[in-house]
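User: quick one, fold this
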Amino acid sequence: MKKLSFLFLFLTTILTAQTDIYFTSKPSLSPDGSKIVFSFDGDLWTVSNNGGQSLRITAMQGDETDALYSPDGKLIAFTGSEDGNQNVYVMPVGGGEIKQLTYYDRNDAVSSWSWDSKFIYFTSNRYNRMSTYKVSIYGGT
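Assistant:
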């Protein structure tokens, strides 16, 4: 009986001592290693690699995920679902205008950047098969 009472007390203490746990997903390190961009609660956030206060950088309708810094460190590409399906977006690292780059009725998901930071590669189920495509940072496929 003492063992059962101790186990009950231990579990009750552990469960009540826990604080809210939040999950972040798909972190990406900046090219210089100083910042991390990640998805949390449907938005994108940045934080110093040393920790500290996080800064929300998107607040669009729908979810934003798959964020990747450009190799030159000037832009962040991400997948957003503002209009119901996923599209490719890009924004300046320091904040500013978010630009939608793809407009397709299938889901487009960011995969990677070109080495020169001029193109974003993404996957899409266009033409009923999953393939990789690229889009210029200025738009158009």
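User: anything notable?
Assistant: The longest strand covers residues 35-40.
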